[in-house]
Amino acid sequence: MQKHIFIDISNHKVAFSVKINGIELIVNRFHQLPSKRLPINQWVHSGTNKFSINISINPQWSEELNEQSLQFSIIEYSGVKPDFISTRVASVDWHYVKDETAFPVNLESTFELDIPYGDWLWKKAEVITNDTLPLESLKGYITRLHQILQNKSYDELEPLLKIKTEELANAYYIPRQERLNDQRTFFTRELFSDNTWGMAPIDFDNMRVLYHAGGQLIEVVDKYGKPLLKALPGEETTFSLPLRLCYYNSNWVLCR
Q1: Which of 117, 138, 180, 232 gives a 20 to 30 Å CA spacing to 91?
Q2: How far is CA 6 from CA 13, 88, 172, in A?
Q3: Rounded-to-integer distance, Cα 207 and Cα 141, Å
Q4: What stretch of H or E contains 149?
Q5: Residue 14 β-bridge partners
Q6: Cβ(150)–Cβ(237) under 8 Å?
Q7: Residue 112: helix, strand or coil by DSSP?
Q8: CA 43 to chain CA mean position, Å
Q9: Percentages (nearest 5) of helix, strand, coil residues in the chain
């Protein structure tokens, strides 16, 4: 039986962030997302999982502390579309209470899942911190990935996407070969076939590293929090490659 897991969240006049198993998935600092639904199959595992929510004063509403609220649910849909059975496996219904609420508010709890996926490689990876980050090795990996994309060499790119491709296929019940075929079609027939397409230079000076899952998963972004690897603006195509990596057996692996 297929099982799909979603976050449902709505809020009123607050800024917030949401983590699942230590991985930050939603950041809403300026009330840009009054509501959001997000599939999270690829971030959860069978057994005990954890969510954490940080709620802070939205700068737009800092003088109007009277009706702030946030509702959060984790929903499991079992079966096959359109005949899904929905089960709420966790929920939060938070409201500002005058003279009692002190910001920031941190809410966290665990929830249980029985699902046939979730043995993600990063759970076996080394714990990386700012002090132990092998920075030159990381830059070398990113440079190699950038060069492969610039050269439009899918045969070299495919092995580097292997773990990400296979784990996402597993998480969303997509046959592995179907996922590989779709990926090859996207890169070779849509992206690389554009003669005007090319990669933007890597801006290592403004690179930031974010640490997730207790340091077993890192995310590499630019100073704006956007993917570091991106294509030059084109007439027909836009492209960026998120870099969520783990360090496994002394090698960098693209996980998401």
Answers
A1: 117
A2: 23, 10, 12
A3: 14
A4: helix 135-150
A5: 57
A6: no
A7: strand
A8: 8
A9: 25, 40, 35
For residue 131, give both structure tokens: 């002090």
State the pTM of this model. 0.91
Closest Cα partner for 133 from 222, 224, 209, 221?
209
The tens-digit pLDDT sequence of the chain (256 residues) is 899 999 999 998 889 999 999 999 999 887 666 889 999 999 999 999 999 999 998 766 777 778 889 999 999 999 877 888 999 999 999 999 988 999 999 999 999 999 999 999 999 999 999 999 999 999 999 999 999 999 999 999 999 999 999 999 999 999 999 999 999 999 999 899 888 889 999 999 999 999 999 999 999 999 999 999 999 986 666 899 999 999 999 999 999 9
What CA–CA distances, in Å, run from 187 to 22, 105, 144, 172, 197? 31, 44, 17, 21, 11
- Burial level of 227, CB count in 10 A (0-12/13-18/19+)? middle
In the numeric block, the tokens 């996980």 are attached to 255
Interatomic CA distance for residues 27 and 33, integer angstroms? 9
| Residue the block writes with tokens 């076939």 | 193
Q: Compute the distance between CA of residue 251 and CA of residue 209 in angstroms, rounded to an integer.
A: 17
Burial of 223 (C-beta count, 10 Å sphere; 0-12/13-18/19+): exposed
**Helix H or strand E encompassing 180:** helix 176-185
